[in-house]
Amino acid sequence: MRTPQQTSIIIRLPAVLKTVGISRATLYKQIQAGLFPRPINLGARSVGWVADEVDALINARIQGVDNEGIEQLILSIHKARNDN
């Protein structure tokens, strides 16, 4: 995804919704189903998503990865977050 020298970009909810073309309700349903990366906390009432993670999901969808494959991708994304 990224090398240690690259800076991660955080995108907020409106940008995520525009980028993936789904509703807010659908986004949160996909997060609950393990089909979309969880947001990261930016503050007391603020969250965002790592742009590289959203891009990885979009690319997987373009490549025709099924939901089982997407679940595995999301698990690896969350594991990579915890390893850093």
Structure report:
- The protein has 84 residues and is an alpha+beta fold.
- The chain has one domain (10-83).
- It is built from four helices and three strands.
- The protein has helices at residues 13-20, 24-32, 51-62, 67-83, and strands spanning 10-11, 40-43, 46-50.
- The protein has a three-stranded antiparallel sheet with strand order 1-3-2.
- Strand 2 and strand 3 (46-50) form a beta hairpin.
- The longest helix has 17 residues, at 67-83.
- The chain is globular and about 35 Å long.
- It starts with 9 loop residues before the first strand and ends with a helix.
- The model has no long low-confidence stretch (mean pLDDT 93).
Layout of secondary structure:
Elements: E1 10-11, H1 13-20, H2 24-32, E2 40-43, E3 46-50, H3 51-62, H4 67-83
Antiparallel strand pairs: 1-3, 2-3
Helix pairs in contact: 3-4
**By helix and strand content, what is the structural category?**
alpha+beta
* Global shape: globular
Listing every helix as H and every strand as E from the N terminus to the C terminus, the arrangement reads EHHEEHH
Provide mean pLDDT, rounded: 93
Percentage of residues in helical conformation: 40-55%
How far is it from the N-terminal to the C-terminal residue, by CA?
A: 13 Å
Name the strands of the widest sheet in spatial order: 1-3-2
- Total DSSP E strands: 3
Amount of beta strand:
5-15%
Output the keywords:
AlpA; AlpA family transcriptional regulator; 55% helix; three-stranded antiparallel β-sheet; Prophage_regulatory_activator; globular; alpha+beta; 84 residues
